[in-house]
Amino acid sequence: MTEIISIENLTKRFGDVTALENVNLNMEKGKIYGIVGRNGSGKTVLFKLITGYLKPTAGRVVVSGKEIGKDTDFAGNIGIIIENPGFLKGYTGFKNLAYLAGIRNIIGKKEIRESMEKVGLDPDSRKKVGKYSLGMKQRLGIAQAIMENPEILILDEPMNSLDNQGVEEVRGILMGLRDEGKTIILASHNKEDIEILCDKVYEINRGRLELYHL
């Protein structure tokens, strides 16, 4: 077993509201994990705790051997789609990704072009993101998540707004990334996505994490 994420006794409260309670979960390299649950069940809270965008009330999250909030503020080497991807409407898709890539400055134009082409977008298109359809924006969000070749992907409803062809293409991309040894954590309301893609599925119910049986 090659463990890449370890979650121990994780609890998150917002005032009197307990979003997650005593969550324990270990994730391995080269697997896709599904997280299901009703809206407001705590899926997005869990994702934000793993990345470091939220700090736990109790317990700990260790990613690639580093405890979030102790050894590092934010998890490194993670590609993320949480909630709706936000982009600069007046820029092209390529320019948006180039701007984001400049934050860490570990990839160049070649990798940006490849990520856009992988999700079915034209990197040479002069169309501004403000004119993109919802499906195109979602594809651009996925390109953003994968462009720096992260070891871990956290994808909150990645199939939103995609047509049937887009769903099939993204499923193929995710299965290919798993075969490369990437770890993918996926939330989806589509049972078919969960059944086709995931090696293990967990349900968040009233703040508690349980193994989900398809």
Could you write a compact summary of the structure shown?
By secondary structure, this protein is of the alpha/beta class. Helices cover 31% and strands 29% of the residues. The model has no long low-confidence stretch (mean pLDDT 94).
Fold and architecture overview:
It is a single chain. This protein is an alpha/beta fold and 214 residues long. It has 2 domains: 12-77 and 150-214, P-loop containing nucleotide triphosphate hydrolases (Rossmann fold, 3-Layer(aba) Sandwich); 88-149, no CATH class. It is built from 6 helices and 10 strands. It has helices at 43-51, 93-104, 109-118, 134-146, 164-179, 191-197; strands at 3-14, 17-28, 32-36, 58-63, 66-67, 78-81, 152-156, 183-187, 200-205, 208-211. The strands form 2 sheets. The protein has a 6-stranded mixed β-sheet with strand order 6-7-8-3-9-10, sandwiched between helices. Helix 5 links the parallel strand 7 and strand 8 (183-187). Helix 2 (93-104) packs across helix 3 and helix 3 (109-118) packs across helix 4 (134-146). The longest helix has 16 residues, at 164-179. The mean pLDDT is 94.
